[in-house]
Amino acid sequence: MSVGGARASRRRRFYAHARHAPASEALSPSGGFAILLDGRAVRTPSGRPLVLPHEALAEAIAGEWEAQGEELDPRAMRLTGLANTAIDGVMGREAMIIEEILRFGASDTILHRAEAPAGLVEAEKAAWDPVLAWAEAALGARLRPVSGIRPAEQPADALARLREAVAGQDAFVLTACHTMTALLGSLLLALAHMHGAPIASP
Questions:
Q1: Residues 6+ apart with CB under 8 A from 68
Q2: Helix/strand/coil for 69
Q3: What is the C-alpha separation between 59 and 33, in angstroms, rounded?
Q4: Measured between alpha carbons, how far is 3 from 61 in angstroms, rounded to an integer?
Q5: Taking burial as the number of CB atoms within 10 A of a residue's CB, which of 42, 64, 147, 149 is the most buried?
Q6: Could you read off the pLDDT of 107-158 as tens digits, one per residue?
């Protein structure tokens, strides 16, 4: 059975119970966890098996399906939508997605600081300087903040460290990173979140 992403139209609930289970070899020779609706495996909008690499993610997605009422509300199944995107839209296109993510590196939102008023300047410094310090300590990426919105050249070695942090991630991690980076306009905040670093907003 095929399911839509977050923008799909509503339809009546057609199953009694949802659960996750280890994926059969027929669904995924490499393993993983499937989502089962009354024992039948869920598929993505493109017809691929909805197989997740980690049990915790599969459990959370099964919980989204189990929590649905008489009508399915895709807006309440955000993890399902992201998983569909990872499988249908990112797998096989990882290199292109990595380049899209890295475009934010040199023009990251938290690198561009206000010049006034003083309260905003201090708020940005308090919220974002710790993230820059984390990026230098954890990733080896020493980036410098600039005033205003004009792009500023960042050290090539720092940008290389950001590439290393993104490259090699699987489609599911890249999907989450791409989504967060695009929403925030900040690769650094996305990476800090991925690594469990404390982040704040001014």
A1: 13, 76, 77
A2: coil
A3: 9
A4: 13
A5: 42
A6: 899 999 999 999 999 999 999 999 999 999 999 999 999 887 777 789 999 9
Retrieve residue 19's tokens: 């659960």
Give ∠ CA 130-136-139 in degrees, rounded to 5.
Answer: 120
CA distances from 50 to 39, 74, 143 (A): 14, 15, 39
3-class DSSP assignment, residue 2: strand
Q: CA-CA distance, 53 to 187, in Å (whole number)?
A: 24
Two structure tokens written together for 102: 């890295």
**H helical segments located in the chain:** 55-66, 78-85, 94-102, 118-134, 156-166, 171-184, 187-194
**Total-model pTM:** 0.85
Decide which of 40 and 11 is more confident.
Answer: 40
Q: How confident is the model at residue 68 (pLDDT cuts 50, 70, 90)?
A: very high
Sequence-distant (6+) residues with CB within 8 A of 2 are 43, 44, 45, 46, 47
